[in-house]
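Suppose you are handed a protein chain with no further information: no name, no annotation, nothing but its sequence. What can you learn? This example shows the usual starting point.
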Amino acid sequence: MLPTRLCRRAATRPAQGVARLSTLTSRRNGPTNAALSGTARGPDLNTLWVSYVDPATIRKRLVQVAQQVRLQLDSKPELVLPRAERTRHGFWFMRFGDEDELEAAQQLLNGQRFETKCGSLRGTLQLDAARRPLNLLSMLNVEHAEACPLAGWLEQTFGAFGAIDELRMPRLRNNWDSGHAFIRYADAASAEEALDRLDGTPSIVSGCNMFVDYAYPKPLVQYQQ
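A reasonable first move is to predict its three-dimensional structure. Written in structure tokens, the prediction is:
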């Protein structure tokens, strides 16, 4: 039987809580009522899904990187962002006027070191031919940091409510920060208290609040470089 906290959350937050549970369960195992049935199809009551960066902030970060890359090119190609739901993936498109401009840009930038003006992101640029003519699929392969301040902040903030068994911060092959994490507690009571206390509170990222809910942590896909 599910704790009353989950039932109350579903009843009092129809705009967010139910929508999130529906996304997590219907995508894999069926309709929302399966998530609330108390069976194996329901959410993992020990694990929380945490969004610490909102989509608008991620989009702004991506635009800043794309614009700084564009300034290195004389051709000044058009910048095209992916669909809103894919901005968390950390790529964009550059659209050129002709093949010569595209080839020159690829030769100049592909594999080059890059660092944002503020120094918060650094790595190597990757420019590949896109499906559409005269477009390059562009991304920054962010270098791995030995120490992650964000991980430490999450462990400290959420660890105040109980022992954490696992902290997972999904990253794609370019190591771009997707803006969300999975935190698994040793017991469900700790997860419930953390959810109650931290949902909607300020994130470590300036101007962002956290959205916290029960979640299904999915296995990460391993990519080959």
